[in-house]
Amino acid sequence: MATNSRGQFNSRLGFVLAAAGSAVGLGNIWKFPFEVGAGGGAAFVLIYLAFCFLLCFPVMISEIAIGRKTQLNAVGAFKKLGHHNWAWIGLLGILAGVFILSFYNVVAGWAFGYFLQMVQGNFEIGQNFGSYISKWESIGLYGLVFMGVTSVIVSKGIQGGIERAAKILMPSLFVLIIGLMLYAFTLDGAMDGIEYYLVPDFSEITGEVIYSALGQAFFSLSLGMGALITYGSYVSRKQDIVRSAAMITLTDVSVAFLAGMMIFPFVFSSGIEPNGGAGLIFATLPGVFEGLGPILGIVIGATFFLLLSFAALTSTVSLLEVPVAYLVDEKKIKRPVAVWGMATLIFLLGLPSLLGNGAVEQLTSFMTLYRDGQEQMISFMDFVELIASDTFLPLGGTVIAIFTAYVWKKNNLNAELMEGRETDSKWMMSYINFAVMFFCPIILGAITIITILERFFGIQVF
Q1: What pLDDT is attached to residue 277?
Q2: Mean pLDDT score, 407-416
């Protein structure tokens, strides 16, 4: 199928911002800080950065190259390059994206709802976080609005929808995060937070910290779910894939890094434990904002959760585009029908996750699995995240690397990367080939196996 019949990014900037937007999301601003806190601070940050560039970067390049070579969706791309026997890789990515979006939209609803609460000056919402997320009617309404906005953007196509939204949302996100960070630096105790975040204590490094840092890096860059294969299929052959992938990785890492620079001064200035877990953002920060005074607290609090909503939206757009591209390419369904039909299906798939936060006991205490060798009752939403995000994504990355190196072959990858290449860096190409052939499949395969052993069978590897 010709590129122009499917749409194409108008510029490198548009592609980089859209792909970076796919990567930048709640994982960077909501999840990254509490992972840093649980991982002991700066040591976790260093390991995370190393994995982003040494491990995730080559997988990203492979995904974009596969997409651009075939000009097809995730399933069609593998069918074209490796025959029908390999289409399951793309299908695995699409399923992962669909299920991730089903619960991700719920968390996006939390963020949007918090923005509305901050505007009203309701700082007590943090103290009632558990009660707040159990109110499925209001959270469901916020999620419905979020899915609706996502669908409008995706339905307008590549240039008119996804690229245009990225050019607005991504710069806005950077302005908001830098503004909040600079304000946070003025707070008492802020430098203690910066020291915790930037000065590593290498005694904190354990096997579990390394494992968590790798998982965070892979999740935050949106790898293994077909998003970058799909976006790559809209890229001009004149673009330098390696350079674009470097810019995407740098943008994503910068947002995560700046998020930590913003949040830890707030946390330390208020005497909050930095290892507060997932509730660090939703349960504790509203109280921090309240301490800034009624007017300033509303402004800063509303701005922060607007930032969180923007970050979520850049990701929900890419997550929806993946199955939509499949339906448009493979099933010849018109884009508007594919968008609204898939959005409706995903919203319905997300209802158990919505109800599994206190509204329905059977979904809140859904099943018993393991964490740190101990039995743990998890919600339906946690179960979907474990399957789709923690298991399918590294598995997808593993098989994409294997496919690229041993089915499509490195010579074909190199030929694709040389099209539009602005510099001929032999050491970079050599590293990409080494990583895709050996480093990425071994490490990502190990992570997949460790996740299954630890979470499903309670076998402690670390």
Answers
A1: 59
A2: 95
The domain locations on the chain are: 11-457
Q: What does the DSSP assignment read for 303-325?
A: HHHHHHHHHHHHHHHHHHHHHHH
Measured distance CA(82)–CA(88) in Å, rounded: 11
Distance CA 37, CA 276 (A): 7
The 3-state DSSP class for residue 374 equals strand
The Cα–Cα gap between 86 and 396 comes to 12
CA–CA separation, 219 vs 25, rounded Å?
Answer: 10
CA distances from 209 to 45, 47, 156 (A): 10, 9, 42
Q: Quote the tokens at residue 333.
A: 């369904």
Say what the pLDDT of residue 276 is.
Answer: 60
11-457: CATH number: 1.10.4160.10
- pLDDT tens for each residue of 1-40: 334 457 899 988 999 999 988 888 877 887 787 788 878 7
> What is the spatial distance between Cα 451 and Cα 82, in angstroms, rounded to a whole number?
28
Q: Which residues of 349-385 are buried (b: 16+ CB within 10 A; e: fewer)?
A: bbbbbbbbbbbbeebbebeebbeeeeeeebbbbbbbb
* Burial readout 105-124 (b: 16 or more C-beta within 10 A, e: otherwise): bbbbbbbbbbbebbeeebbe
The pTM for the full model equals 0.93
Handedness of CA 392, 393, 397, 403 (dihedral sign): positive
Q: Quick check: 197 and 264 in contact, CB under 8 A? A: yes
The CA-atom distances, in angstroms, between 114 and each of 117, 140, 300, 301 are 5, 13, 12, 9
Interatomic CA distance for residues 219 and 28, integer angstroms: 9
**Element at 368 (helix H, strand E):** strand 367-371
